[in-house]
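Bench notes, afternoon.
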Amino acid sequence: MPRDTGFLTEKQLRILELRARGYKQREIAELLGTSRENVAILEKRARENVEKARRTIVAFERLSPVRVVLEEGEELFQAPEKILRAADRHGIKVVHNRTSLIGLLRRHGGSRIQGNRIAGRIGVSILRSGRIVVE
């Protein structure tokens, strides 16, 4: 069964892999039994497909992120539960666990976190990819 290569053909993926290893197009052409021009065309199309896929992911992540607001006075250790519940309601699997969410909030919350309390309103966006953005 062929492996899933997404938007790339097996040959495009192989060319990108060999280029990443430092092979020149001429060397790849010899390995694959084709012309250097064909390798150049396949590589160009592969890079275009990779860029399209990247833009698709960015657009998908920006689709109506789920917003959670952590209010002043809330317990920091209750915030992960609030974030994860909101994500669950929207069918999003968050890429963080409770501990890493607290670390993320501490790193990006700055002076809005004092001790184990929220000292100033913190906005949190849950992206469709499961990534969390602390605003």
